[in-house]
Structures are given as structure tokens and as C-alpha cells.
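Translate sequence into C-alpha cells.
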Amino acid sequence: MTSPTAIPATASPQVEFISLSHLNPSTELNPVPSRGIDLPYFRKYVRSLEESGYDYTLLPYGSNSADSFVIASAVGQLTERLRPIVALRPNTTIPQVGAQKLATLDQLTEGRAVVHLISGGNDAEQARHGDYLPKDRRYARTSEYIDLLRRSWSETGPFSHEGEFFKFDDFGPGFRPYGHTIPISIGGQSDAAFQVGGAKADIFSFWGEPLADLRAEIDRVNGIAAAAGRTDRPRIWVTFRPIIAKTDDLAWRKAFDYVTKLEKTYSAGGPPARFLTGAPQNVGSQRALDFAQRAEIYDRALWTRTAAATNAAGASTALVGSPETVAAAILDYVDQGASLVSIRGYDTLADAVDYGQHILPLVRQELAHRAATGQRGTLQDAHPGALTPGFDPAALAGLR
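Result follows.
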């Protein structure tokens, strides 16, 4: 029998935290008209992330969004330590130019650049930028793109290429990164995503799923990596939308209030909902909605009703509870092998600061305890959350 203090064999010994940089005060809870970038707010936001102890920030990309490269460069100059993750769609930038831009960012930030490649999960959104490649071929393009990024950063002389998606002559040597290379992240839940990510990515990204399901997905990624002859394994990145308050009952009251506001926002059909009508095409959203249909709560704190309210628009599953309960839930995922944890809230700036003050230190204290003693601490046992016998979130929220 495994000791209750034993560290699981699958556990990551470290965790780094990711947030998402927001450009203005508009939120899913309270959408407000905006020109796009509120510069004083953006400056305050990214500096708050650095002060709060986050390691990375994701700069998202869409047909109607600000350019992720330009925003990443700004993040790099506004901070000293925070690592910008550029979301990049291979159809928007040829690989030689993508490599050049990323290497430039890496040099400007002295080695902090990361790239998250988005193959594209929605035909209509891809078409807005003139991309009509079938979904089943987009990951094949991403695979070729990864190879060309790495060659562009490493070749010592000119090289030519003729592949299925890209062709050029005598490119290089390319502009080099600050260090040896730049980490490449892949996400997605389709078979093609697993094949490309497992074989080639430095990081594989998941949305928040029940623990047992995520463990099976991690095993799948690692199996593909092994079959590809890799001696390493992709780092695992998992994303949540925590809803926290001083106690579990206050957090659940807040959660039910939040989901009412989310339902109102998305039913109104304005931003961000206007691009997300109909059944989602991407497998990740389909899985999230399936989990939501089967149950509202999984494990210690995972809540799927937020996914149902938003049509699983991007990362949308919540962790609900006190800071201690949510930190314990994050550690459950670290125990499954996650070493990168993205937490971003619905009340964007306020939540980012709260997480930095109340969640990040608890997780880091537990991992420091493990490193020093070789055993688990007491946080997970002391804060069972939804694992408590007779747990009833509606009763906690005062709804019955």
C-alpha cells in the first residue's frame, strides 16, 4: 500500500505558472466597448504578473486580436523576468519569417521567448485570414513548420526546402535566438495534435480535465514521444479558470454568480461570443462539453458549468474553492505530471493578483517541502473540497 505521504511517481518536482495578458479592462463578466489596447491598463497588468510571481504570460492570437508578436515584445520590455509566450498560427507567417521574429524577440528578452503553435480548430476563423486548408491537414503543416523553425535557428549555412506546404531556396543562415533554441508548444486533442505534439513539441498543452482523463492523455503523449525515438518527454501544460474566495462556501457563491453573468454575456451574442456560434469543431471543446454534460464537478474542485455556459470557448473549466482548496487541486495535477500550470480568472486583473498572493505561494511551499523531505505535505489532505463526504455546492452557495 502506498503511504499517504509518498510523492506519486508521476509527480513533477517543479511547477511554473502561466497567466494570460489582457489589453484592456473588458471581461467575460462585464464586456465593455474598447479600442483594443488600454495602454495604462496593459502596463499595470503585465507588471502585476511579474510582481505576483508568474513565470510566463500567453499572448493570444485571433483574426480580430492585437498582433501577438508586437504585444510579446512590449511585455519583454515592460518586465525583467516574465517570459512571453507568442501564440502563432502557421498560416499567418511563413516559417523563415516566424523564426526570424521569434529569434529577435528572444534576443530582445535575453532568452525568454516561447512559441505556442495554433494549428486552427475552426474553419470559419481560419478563413478570415484566407486559410482554407482542411483541418486534418493543418497539423501536418504545423509539423513541417516546427522542423523549419528549428532548422532556421540552427543551420550554419544557406539551405533550401521543398515540402508539402512550404518551398524556398537558399535561406540562411537565419537570425539566431539568444540561446540554443526556443521552446515550442503544441495544444489540441485531435489524433493529429497528439502525433505532432508527442513527436516534436517541447510542451504539450491541455485544458483542465478530470484527473483520470488527463493522466490517460499524458500517457498517450509520452507513448508517442517514445515511439518517435525521443529520449525526453514534452512538458505538460494544463489550464484552469480558478474562482476563489476566503472559504469554500464563499467561493461557490461567487462561482454561481459568475456563471449567471457568463450565460448572460454569451447569450447576448456580442464579443467574445460572436465568433463562437454553433457546435465547436475542435476536439478540445467537444471534450469539455462532454465532461460538462456528464457531471458538473470532478475531483477536488474542477467545475464544468463554466464550460457549458461559454460553449467551451477556449480554456473554460474552473477550479472552485478557497485558495487552499484550489492550491491542493493544482497539486493534484502536478502529481499527474503537469509542470506548467496556467491560471487566469474571469475578473482578470484582480484575479491575477489574488492568485499571486494566495495560490502560487501555497503550491511553491508544498513543492519546497517535498524537495526538502521527500514526502508530501498536509495541504491536500487538509482541504478535500468536493471530495468531502456529502459535498453539496448548491447548499454551500446558499441556493438550498
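Note: The mean pLDDT is 92.
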